[in-house]
# Entry
Amino acid sequence: MLSNLNRRDFFLSTAAFALLTAQPALALTETDARKLVDEVVADIDRVISSGQSDSAVLREFEKLFVRYADVNIMAQYALGADGRSASASQKRAFNDAFTGYIARKYGKQFRDFIGGRVEVQSARQIKAGYEINTLAYLRGDGPFEVSFHVSDKSGRNKFFNIFIEGVNLLLTERSEIGSMLDRRGGDINAMIADLKKAG
# Structure
């Protein structure tokens, strides 16, 4: 039979173990979030400076998006309340179409970064992780702010939103997806077909 002291130690140890296993093994730190953004910026720079064709560059950007972005969270948010009525196969198809759409749409804009640079300026903790604020410098143009929201909710460090000069990418895309759905009378399959050609 356990003594009072042993029982107390046992329950404290059990409680501590339960708390530890309820939390992610490695919590996201500011250093982790900054490192992720540094890697994103370095890879974007590598791709736009590669001299590849536009189609090859867009394929590379799609790969980078899948590697660094929390695609599932972003797609779920962009689909919004309409996602509740979507089947599992429709959600998968939307995620795939959304990934290609984002890569095409923003990949074209990244072409403007040739010869430019992005510098990390500051970081602050937010509810879901960290906001990493950067300044983007383009050739012949003044700097503008780009902020990345980084989280480890998916089990890996990934960004789940970007603000470009204060414009919220996720809100913008949610509005775009909503408009596509409205034009198709709420038909998710038709919207996915449109999304595959958009961007």
